[in-house]
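Entry 12.
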Amino acid sequence: MKVFLSKSLTTNMVKVFIHSFQSEWLKRKRSAATWLMIVGAFLIPVIFVIARIVDFDNLYSSVKSEHFWEILFRQSWQSMAIFMLPFGVILATSLITQLEYKNNTWKQLHTSPQSLTVIFFSKLSVIVAMMMQFFILFNLGIYLSGMLPSIIFREFLFLKQVPWEFWIKSNIKFFISCLPIIALQYLLSIQFKNFLVPLGFGIGLFVASMIAMNWKHGYLIPYIFCTLTFVGPNADVVCPLRIHWMATIYFVFFTIVSCLLYINKKEKG
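Predicted 3D structure (tokens):
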């Protein structure tokens, strides 16, 4: 009997979470964060396509390279990992979380038949899911930026094997590097009604991480992980753990702190 009740309770909790997630997912459809994700994902690939078509000689030499896809991948991720990705995560997380403040719907949300924990994690899950969606679109853009010029100029048509294993592993590392930024921005955005407070705090930490690139304790600033993932091990930044383990620990810590602060917050609207 106890086992049956436990299974039934778990099933109901899962259903409530799924419904809450679906509701939060619908809210973000017409938000600025959605357009930010789409434009951000295809901006660099579009620039690369135009540049390769205009610079015919460079296109010819790059297509003939045996390491074409690796070079294209690193070139595409250079600006994305160092600048656009951290800044985009800061902005998108703040925009999504602040939707309730913007529409003045926190009180309406809290009167719905769902626990505070479900509300908290459903919103966080939507942000993480959007980040996954961004990575898929960005990688699709990189692939198309490599294929389209060769299709337009038939003489450059090539069938080099895409190094999918390299792409997948690299994307997992970049994704993990984003998680502490999401968690900390989520914490700030829930706590402050003013959109500029979490945004300003995030940008400030991002700038600080750039300044701290050559500081031996630079790994303490979570906004530096995306850059370190791209440039590789930095002799000046001696991290006691691997960067991605540090990012995971930060993500879990910020998420727990954020959840506790949200649940115990006196004024939630």
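Annotation: Residues 32-263 form one domain. The chain has one domain: 32-263.
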